[in-house]
Q: What sequence folds into this?
């Protein structure tokens, strides 16, 4: 096959400059038409930037990585889909057996959630409506906060139940100890150990023959004082345990009743005023260059064919 230099190719194309110009003009017109809203619906992009807040690191994940997992969860996607009726908005037939697959592809195409170099998270949404793109970004942030709060309340409910069970056990032990102490005090008529011990000592000094009531109290102080002290120490410890679980429950109930945000929005969802897709100049350039390339190939081929015939 005969080799052609670039110079030869250019010389062969030069006589056809009018045709190539015509091809370029037609390609530009076609490109403008194809990139117009009549053919390709324009998309508008809204975005927001958030930082994690009120989150505790889990395992080796940072709070940013943890929050990113929440943003990309199926529960958030489902909540946003239901809130804005995205199946209808994206013209997806729910009767189609693969409607969820088409929705997932559309969602992945239009919604982008990624971590930035500064440990923040950027949420961007493309849509044919500028207002809807902004609403969906807001909806995603709200859905993440609601989901984390719901999971946190579920954990708090478990903590409350567990601590209430321990509180009941501590209460039962305290009641049992109080019952034992009360029985000893009633049996030996002991009201105040220290006061009664001093009183009985004085009475013994006066007369070794004590009354029946004082004799019984003296016997109780002699045989049961150590046990009363031990039971008093144990009940004090159990009351401390009771107070600990009571404080734990109060703290969990306070967290359960309050609603907090887990995203610190540093850049609120924008309302786009210009389209992000399609880029008309790029579409026109690609179509024009492609058309000229095809036209040049055809002309070179025809020149080679004519030369062979000659």
A:
């Amino acid at each position: 096959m005969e080799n052609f230099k670039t110079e030869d190719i250019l010389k062969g194309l030069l006589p056809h400059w009018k045709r190539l110009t015509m091809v370029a003009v037609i390609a530009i017109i076609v490109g403008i038409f194809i990139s117009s809203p009549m053919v390709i619906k324009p998309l508008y992009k809204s975005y927001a930037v958030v930082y994690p807040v009120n989150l505790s690191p889990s395992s080796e994940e940072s709070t940013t990585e943890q929050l990113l997992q929440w943003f990309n969860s199926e529960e958030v996607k489902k909540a946003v889909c239901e809130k804005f009726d995205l199946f209808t908005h994206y013209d997806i037939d729910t009767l189609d057996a693969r409607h969820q697959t088409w929705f997932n592809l559309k969602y992945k195409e239009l919604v982008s959630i990624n971590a930035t170099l500064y440990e923040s998270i950027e949420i961007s949404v493309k849509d044919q409506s500028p207002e809807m793109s902004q609403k969906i970004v807001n909806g995603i942030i709200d859905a993440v906060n609601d989901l984390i709060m719901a999971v946190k309340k579920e954990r708090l409910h478990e903590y409350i139940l567990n601590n209430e069970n321990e509180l009941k056990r501590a209460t039962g032990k305290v009641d049992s100890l109080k019952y034992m102490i009360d029985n000893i005090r009633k049996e030996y008529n002991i009201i105040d150990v220290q006061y009664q011990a001093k009183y009985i000592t004085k009475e013994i000094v006066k007369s070794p023959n004590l009354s029946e009531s004082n004799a019984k109290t003296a016997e109780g102080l002699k045989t049961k004082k150590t046990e009363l002290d031990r039971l008093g120490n144990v009940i004090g410890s159990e009351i401390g345990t009771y107070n600990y679980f009571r404080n734990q429950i109060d703290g969990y109930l306070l967290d359960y009743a309050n609603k907090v945000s887990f995203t610190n929005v540093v850049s609120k969802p924008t309302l786009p005023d210009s389209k992000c897709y399609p880029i008309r100049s790029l579409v026109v350039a690609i179509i024009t260059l492609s058309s000229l390339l095809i036209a040049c190939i055809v002309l070179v081929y025809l020149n080679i064919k004519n030369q062979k015939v000659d």
Notes: The chain is about 70% helix and 10% strand. The mean pLDDT is 85.
